[in-house]
Amino acid sequence: MIRSVAAVLAGLVASLAVITLVETVGHTIYPPPPGLDPMTPGGMAAIVAQWPLGAMLFVLLAFSLGALAGGAVAAKIAAEDRTVEAMVVGTFLTLGALLNVVTIPHPLWMSGVSVAIQMPSAWLGARLVVRRPT
User: Fold this and answer.
1) How far apart (Å, rounded) are the C-alpha atoms in residues 122 and 15?
2) 55: Cβ–Cβ under 8 A, 6 or more apart, which residues?
3) Mean pLDDT score, 104-118
4) What are the pLDDT digits (tens) for 4-27?
5) Angle 82-7-27 from CA coordinates, rounded to 5°
6) Is residue 134 part of a domain?
7) Total structural domains in the chain?
8) b/e burial code for range 20-32 (CB count within 10 A of at least 16 → b)
């Protein structure tokens, strides 16, 4: 039980680290317009409204790679059914994506993809590190 909780927590930390890293690269390539504060929901909504497609794709890449990394880390640390811990990480990330799209208006397609990509990416991360019996 303790190992499962540790696996999920480590997976979430790994996810957030990867998401932050990829989004930082995206913000370097596509900086926010001057004068808008990304730390407020209104400022972030104004930034999202002006984002080019490439900036939106970077966010989706960040979410996907973050969930992949989180699922992989959780599965690697977990003791027994490693996919369960990875899917718990994916569930938390899905809830975070839902909160994000409810709080900050996004294009409809981006909202759908950002929510839908979490679980499959976490599952794939687990599949990449779990050894199958031969």
Assistant:
1) 9
2) 26, 29, 30
3) 94
4) 899 999 999 999 999 999 999 998
5) 110
6) no
7) 1
8) eebbeebeeebeb
